[in-house]
Each structure stands twice: as C-alpha cells, then as structure tokens.
Design brief:
The chain is an alpha+beta fold and about 180 residues long. It has a seven-stranded mixed β-sheet, sandwiched between helices. The two termini are about 20 Å apart.
C-alpha cells in the first residue's frame, strides 16, 4: 500500500536535461541494461537507446537528471505527454514516465520513489491528474514495485519493435490528487 502523501519522501531534485547530458544518460541506460542482461532480466539491451536519440528528446525538454556532482549522474527520467508507441490509440492525457534510472551506486536511498514523486508533481503542474508507465511483463520485481507505488495494471501489450529486451510490457497507471 502506498504511503500517505504526508509521510512520503520529498520529491527528487531533478533538473531539466540538455543535449549535453545525452551521453551520460545513454551510458547510464547501457550500464543498467548490461546489469539486466547479466542478471537474466529481459527488459533493456545495451546500445538500443543511442545518445543521439536522448539528445533529441532532451532538446524537447523530455529528460530530467539528478547529478550528485557535475561529473556524476545519479538518476534520470523521461516524461512525455503522449505515448502512442506503447499506448496505441489511447490518447488519454497523462504524464507518461519512461527510462526511470538510478545509478547502481545510489540504489537503496528511496530515489525511485522520490523520482516518481517529482514526476507526479510535474504532471500535476501541467494540470493532468494521471501518470502512466510501462514495465516488462516478465519482470515481477518491477511490477510489484510500481504496484506498491500506487500504480494499477491496465493491460499487457507487445513491446514496440525498436526495443528488443522482452516481447511484452504491462501498461500501468496511477491517479493523482489535484488538491
């Protein structure tokens, strides 16, 4: 069960990424993808999300980063306002969360929860009371994590063809309070 808002941790101090952050974001994703491969988790593959793509998305203001120092990227996340690749014709207004990443050396500090809170605040600031995300259908750990964060499973669907770590994803959503 998710914690009441009054007891939840503070949002993560994320800042808008720039194209200059793209290499670090892509490298973090590749590190995490390699860890997944090494641990038998079929979700991300190294090299499938190039820095050039990240730079284009950062140019549009979609990526946010948390740096422990100017040289050290601790976490990153991408928020978009439409997601036809994963959600198809369902054009429901939502903050769509992608690429939530915490560097391994920063795990265990509740950063994922704090990043999700940042995403919720950003979504609400845009007048949208709904968050959505996807996770690999065959990753029970992440499915449970997001359920514990208040997300509900909507449906399972095929992974878009440009990704290859798994074949199916579970689409999840969470209603946000507009108070």
């Amino acid at each position: 069960m998710p914690e009441p808002d009054s007891l939840a941790p503070e949002p993560a101090p994320m800042i808008v990424a720039t194209p200059a952050d793209a290499d670090d974001i892509a490298q973090l994703r590749d590190r995490l993808a390699q860890w997944m491969v090494d641990n038998g988790i079929g979700q991300w593959l190294p090299g499938e999300y190039p820095a050039a793509t990240v730079a284009e998305e950062a140019e549009r203001g979609e990526w946010f980063v948390w740096r422990d120092s100017p040289e050290i990227l601790a976490a990153a996340v991408r928020i978009v306002w439409r997601d036809p690749e994963f959600w198809g014709e369902d054009d429901t207004p939502a903050g769509y969360i992608h690429g939530l990443m915490v560097a391994p050396e920063f795990r265990g500090n509740d950063l994922g929860t704090r990043i999700l809170r940042f995403c919720a605040n950003r979504t609400l600031a845009n007048g949208i009371p709904l968050q959505r995300l996807d996770t690999a259908a065959d990753n029970p750990v992440l499915r449970k994590y997001y359920t514990n964060q208040g997300f509900t499973e909507v449906r399972e669907t095929e992974l878009p063809p440009q990704f290859h770590g798994t074949t199916h994803v579970v689409l999840m959503e969470k209603s946000l309070s507009m108070h």
